[in-house]
Specification:
Order of helices and strands of chain B: HHHHHHHHHHHHHHHHHHHH
Largest sheet of chain A: 8 strands, mixed
Oligomer: heterodimer
Largest interface: A-B, 69 and 57 residues
Structural class of chain B: mainly alpha
Shape of chain A: globular
Distance between the termini of chain A: 64 Å
Radius of gyration of chain A: 24 Å
Strand content of chain B: under 5%
Number of helices of chain A: 14
Strand order of the largest sheet of chain A: 6-5-15-13-14-12-9-10
Largest sheet of chain B: none
Shape of chain B: globular
Helix content of chain B: over 70%
Number of strands of chain A: 15
Distance between the termini of chain B: 34 Å
Order of helices and strands of chain A: HEEHHEEHEHHEHHHEHEEEHEHEEHEHE
Number of strands of chain B: 0
Structural class of chain A: alpha/beta
Helix content of chain A: 25-40%
C-alpha cells in the first residue's frame, strides 16, 4: 500500500462489507429451517452451555446458519459451480437433458461386510421366528444412469455385488437393480424422476412386480398373487415436482412435471395403523399416509408417496392372499406401500432409523408375518440402517 | 475459533480491532490482553487457565532471572524451561511416550487421552524464547504483567504463529503507531491470507481428503502424485495464509511481525527451503538449540549429531508420531548431504536443483500427511508404480477436472510471479495499481464469503437411505 488513496479504498470496501453483513445479521429475523438443505437451522443457543463449550460451538453454527442472504449465497455458489469444468456440482452430475445423477458413494469392503454380517445375523432371528427372509436390492439412480455420466466407470456398481456375495445363501435375494439395468435407456428413464434420487410410481411398480414374481418362484406366494398389468391403470398428475436432488441445487434445473401412479383397479378395503412414540397404535386413513400432498401443485417425494414413518401397518381385507409381510425399508420403498397391500392381507412397514422403544429384531419376533423383506437400494449398504 | 470463519470476520474482528483502536492509550494493552484471552477461551474455556498460569510463571521467572546472578539465575532458567517443556510434554506427548514404552517393553500401561490445548506448541515456544533471551541478557525482563501477557497471548499469532520473539515487539508493546497506510496494508495482508486459505488451500484440501480417505492401493500412480502435489500446495497456502492473516491483524493493531514464509517452493536446496518455510520455527531452533549445541563448527561427527537432534525435535514439534519425526530427519539428512561435495554441486545447478528440491519435499509431505508409516510406505509404492497400480484411471481425469484449475492457480501463486507483475504495474501507474488492488481484494473478500457460507452447507441427506 503506497498511497493514502489506495489505503482508504481498501479499508473502505472492507469495512463496508463487514458493516453491512454484521448489521444485517442482527436486524434480520432468524429463520427456522432451510428449504435448500432440508434441515432445521441452528437457533440462538442456551447460555448454560458456556462452561462445556457447547454454547460456543452452537453459536458458531448459529452465526453461520443465520448469515444474511445465506440461500442466495448457496444459489450463487451452485451457479458458479455449474459454469466450471467440474463434473459434479454439489456432488451431483447434471446432464444436458436435465437429469441429475448423484455422485455415487464409496464404501470400504470392511464396512459392507459388517452390514452383510448384520443381515446374516438377522436371518437367524427370522428363522427362529419361523419366517422367510428376502433381501431386495433396488437401484439407486447412479446405478442405472452411468451412461449419462462423461465417464460411466464413475458409478460404483461392483459394491452392490460385493455386498450381496457376503449374504448367506439361505437369504433369498431379488436383485431388482440388475433386472432394471438390463432395460434400454428410454425404459429406464421412464421409471425415474429426473431431478430426484428416487424412482417414480412406474419404477416402483416395476420393482414390486419383480419382487412378487421372485416370491412366487421361490414358492412363498402362490400364483393367485401374480400381478397382471391389466389390473393396473397408469394415472399421471401434472405437478411441479420438487426433486430432492434439485432442492440441493436451489431448483436451478427444470422440474419434473408429471407424478405417475399405478392404480389398482380391483377392490381394496384399506385400514391403517401408525405406531406412536409411546408404544401405542393410532388408526388413520390410507390417504393420510399415502399421497398426502396430492392436492398441492408443488409436491415432493414424501408428499407424493409416503413419508419415512417409523412403523405402520396397512391391512387390506380384499387382498389377493391371506399372507402378511413385514418390510424393513428405506425411502425407495415408499411408493410401493399401496402395491404390497394388493397382495398381502397385512403389510407392516418399518424404517429402522425412525423407530424408538423397539428394535427390528423385537418386531420380527413379535410379528405374525409370513415373510420379512429387506427393501434397500444399491448404495444403502452400510450404516445405521443395519442396526437391527 | 479460526480467522477464516464467518463469526470471526463479522463479529469478533470488528470488536477486536475496533475497540483497541478507539480505547484510551493506557487501556489499549489491558483491553488487548482481555480480548486475546477471550478469543482463546472461546475455543478453550478450561485451557485458558493453563495459558494464564503460563503467563504468570513466565512473568515471575523472567523477573527472577533478571534479579539474580550465577547459580540462582540458572536455577530460575531451568525452572522456567522445565515448566514450559513439561506443559508441552504432558499435553502433547504423554500418549506418544506411553505407547512407545508399552511397545518397547511389552507393557500395558494405560494410555491417557489428553486433548491438546490449541496453540500450545506456539505459545510455549514464545515463552521459552522470552525466558532464554532474558537469561542471555538480550533483553531485560518485563516488569509489567500486562505486557508479558500481551506478548504471550496476543490473538493474531496465538493459534498458529508466527513464533514472535519478544525482542521483535518489545518496543511495540510500549509504543506503537497506526497510520492509514499501515492499517490499509494490514487489511490487504489479512485479505491475502484469507484468500489463500479459503479459496486455494480449502479447495485443494477437498481433493487431498478424497485421495487419502482410503488405502493408497485404490489410487492410480498419477493420482497419487497429483494428490501429494495438492497437499504440498494446501499446506503451504493454509499455513502461509494463516501467517498472512496474523501479520495483517498485527498491522491493524500497530504490530509488525516478521515474515514467516518466503516462496519456499522456489528453493534449490533443503537448507534454503528451511530459510523460506516457517521461518520463525527454523530460526527458533537455530538460535535456541542448534547454535548453543555448537552448530556446524564442531567437526563432522558432532555437527551431524547436532543436525540429528534439531531435526528430530523439529519433526516431533509438528506432531506426536513417528512419521513426523521421520519427516524431520528426512530434511536433516538432506541438509547434511548438501554439505558434501556431491550435494554442493547438485544444489549449484540451475534446474536439477529445483527438481531435486521438489522431489524431496513431496516425498517428505507423504510422510507428513500419512496416517502412520505403513500408509506412507504403501503410498510410496503407488507413486513409484511398485504396487502394480494403473498409471492413470478415470478418477485421475475426474480429479483434474474438479481441481485442475485450483492446482494451476496454486502452482503459479506459490511463485513470486504475481508479486513481480504487481511491481511492474505499479511502475506504470501507482494510482491504477492501487485501484486494481482494491478491486482485486474486494473480489477476493466476496468470493471468500461465498465460499465460507457454502462451507457450512450441510444438507440432510435423508435420501441417502
Amino acid at each position: 500500500m503506497r498511497t493514502r488513496f489506495g489505503a482508504f479504498m481498501i479499508i473502505g470496501s472492507f469495512a463496508a462489507i463487514i458493516f453491512v453483513f454484521s448489521v444485517m445479521h442482527i436486524l434480520t429475523p432468524d429463520l427456522p429451517s432451510s428449504k435448500t438443505e432440508n434441515r432445521s437451522l441452528q437457533a440462538f443457543p442456551a447460555i448454560r452451555g458456556i462452561p462445556s463449550g457447547n454454547f460456543q460451538s452452537q453459536f458458531n453454527n448459529y452465526y453461520s446458519d443465520q448469515f444474511p442472504f445465506r440461500d442466495s449465497f448457496l444459489s450463487a455458489y451452485t451457479i458458479l459451480s455449474m459454469q466450471s469444468p467440474n463434473i459434479y456440482v454439489r456432488k451431483k452430475f447434471i446432464s444436458k437433458d436435465g437429469w441429475i445423477i448423484p455422485q455415487d458413494f464409496s464404501y470400504s469392503h470392511q464396512t459392507m461386510e459388517l452390514a452383510a454380517d448384520a443381515v446374516n445375523e438377522l436371518y437367524e432371528v427370522v428363522q427362529q421366528a419361523d419366517k422367510k427372509l428376502y433381501f431386495t436390492l433396488v437401484p439407486q439412480k447412479s446405478y442405472l444412469f452411468g451412461y449419462k455420466l462423461p465417464y460411466p466407470e464413475l458409478t460404483e456398481k461392483e459394491k452392490a455385488g460385493y455386498f450381496a456375495s457376503h449374504l448367506r445363501n439361505e437369504i433369498s435375494l431379488i436383485n431388482v437393480a440388475d433386472i432394471m439395468d438390463a432395460l434400454s435407456p428410454e425404459e429406464k428413464e421412464d421409471l425415474f424422476f429426473k431431478t430426484d434420487l428416487h424412482w417414480n410410481g412406474k419404477g416402483a411398480y416395476f420393482g414390486f412386480k419383480e419382487i412378487i414374481a421372485g416370491m412366487i418362484d421361490n414358492g412363498d406366494l402362490t400364483q393367485e398373487a401374480s400381478i397382471v398389468d391389466a389390473q393396473f391403470d397408469l394415472v399421471e398428475y401434472e405437478k411441479a415436482y420438487d426433486g430432492d436432488l434439485n432442492r440441493n441445487l436451489s431448483y436451478l434445473v427444470p422440474k419434473d412435471r408429471k407424478v405417475p401412479y399405478m392404480v389398482y383397479q380391483g377392490s381394496m378395503d384399506l385400514a391403517c395403523e401408525i405406531y406412536q412414540e409411546d408404544g401405542s397404535w393410532q388408526s388413520a386413513s390410507f390417504n393420510k399416509i399415502f399421497a398426502s400432498g396430492l392436492a398441492n401443485y408443488e409436491i415432493d417425494y414424501n408428499q407424493a408417496y409416503t413419508y419415512n414413518l417409523g412403523r405402520y401397518i396397512v391391512t387390506n381385507k380384499d387382498s389377493l392372499t391371506d399372507q402378511k409381510i413385514l418390510i424393513l425399508k428405506d425411502s425407495m420403498q415408499n411408493p410401493t406401500t399401496g402395491l404390497f397391500s394388493v397382495v398381502f392381507r397385512e403389510t407392516e412397514i418399518v424404517d429402522v432409523r425412525n423407530i424408538k422403544r423397539v428394535t427390528a429384531k423385537e418386531i420380527i419376533q413379535e410379528s405374525d408375518a409370513d415373510v420379512v423383506l429387506i427393501f434397500y437400494h444399491t448404495s444403502n449398504l452400510t450404516g445405521e440402517m443395519y442396526q437391527f | 475459533m479460526v480467522f477464516s470463519s464467518l463469526i470471526f470476520i463479522f463479529l469478533f474482528l470488528p470488536v477486536m480491532i475496533g475497540l483497541p483502536l478507539i480505547a484510551p492509550l493506557k487501556w489499549k494493552n489491558p483491553l488487548l490482553v482481555l480480548l486475546s484471552l477471550f478469543f482463546y477461551a472461546w475455543g478453550e474455556p478450561y485451557y485458558v487457565l493453563i495459558m494464564i498460569i503460563s503467563i504468570l510463571i513466565n512473568f515471575l521467572s523472567g523477573i527472577a532471572i533478571d534479579r539474580h546472578e550465577g547459580r540462582m539465575r540458572k536455577a530460575w532458567l531451568i525452572f522456567a524451561l522445565v515448566f514450559n517443556l513439561s506443559l508441552l510434554a504432558v499435553f502433547k506427548y504423554t500418549g506418544f511416550f506411553v505407547e512407545n514404552i508399552n511397545h518397547i517393553f511389552g507393557l500395558s500401561v494405560f494410555t491417557p487421552s489428553i486433548s491438546l490445548p490449541i496453540g500450545i506448541s506456539f505459545y510455549t515456544f514464545q515463552s521459552l524464547s522470552y525466558i532464554i533471551d532474558v537469561y542471555r541478557n538480550r533483553t531485560r525482563a518485563q516488569e509489567s504483567l500486562i505486557s508479558v501477557a500481551l506478548y504471550i497471548s496476543l490473538f493474531p499469532q496465538l493459534i498458529a504463529g508466527p513464533i514472535v520473539r519478544y525482542t521483535t515487539i518489545e518496543e511495540q508493546i510500549r509504543e506503537r503507531h497506526i497510520t492509514l497506510l499501515s492499517f490499509g496494508e494490514g487489511v490487504r495482508r489479512f485479505l491475502l491470507g484469507l484468500g489463500k486459505k479459503v479459496l486455494i488451500a480449502n479447495t485443494l484440501g477437498e481433493f487431498v481428503d478424497l485421495a487419502f480417505a482410503y488405502s493408497p492401493v485404490n489410487l492410480s500412480t498419477s493420482t497419487a502424485w497429483l494428490a501429494i502435489l495438492a497437499y504440498a500446495l494446501q499446506i503451504y497456502f493454509d499455513f502461509s495464509g494463516y501467517s498472512d492473516m496474523a501479520i495483517g491483524l498485527g498491522k491493524m493493531l500497530g504490530f509488525e511481525f516478521e515474515e514467516n514464509f518466503n516462496y519456499p517452493y522456489i528453493s534449490r536446496s533443503a537448507s534454503e527451503f528451511w530459510r523460506r518455510w516457517h521461518i520463525s520455527l527454523g530460526t527458533w531452533f537455530r538460535d535456541y538449540l542448534y547454535i548453543p549445541l555448537g552448530g556446524n563448527r564442531v567437526g563432522l561427527a558432532r555437527g551431524a549429531r547436532n543436525l540429528f537432534i534439531v531435526w528430530f525435535l523439529t519433526g516431533l514439534w509438528h506432531g506426536a508420531s513417528w512419521n513426523f519425526v521421520l519427516w524431520g530427519l528426512w530434511f536433516g539428512f538432506f541438509i547434511f548431504f548438501e554439505r558434501t561435495a556431491i550435494g554442493k554441486s547438485l544444489i549449484g545447478t540451475k534446474y536439477l536443483s529445483r527438481v531435486y528440491l521438489v522431489l524431496i519435499v513431496l516425498i517428505g509431505w507423504v510422510m507428513f500427511r500419512s496416517d502412520g508409516l505403513s500408509y506412507a510406505l504403501t503410498y510410496f509404492q503407488v507413486m513409484f508404480t511398485e504396487h502394480g497400480n494403473a498409471v492413470a484411471n478415470v478418477n485421475t481425469i475426474v480429479y483434474l477436472r474438479q481441481y485442475g484449475i485450483s492446482l494451476l492457480i496454486g502452482i503459479l501463486a506459490a511463485t513470486p510471479m504475481w508479486e513481480l507483475i504487481s511491481i511492474k504495474i505499479r511502475g506504470l501507474s501507482v494510482k491504477w495499481h492501487e485501484i486494481g488492488q482494491a478491486i482485486f481484494y474486494t473480489l477476493v473478500f466476496l468470493l471468500v464469503i461465498l465460499s465460507l457460507v457454502n462451507s457450512t452447507y450441510n444438507p440432510f441427506i435423508y435420501f441417502r437411505f
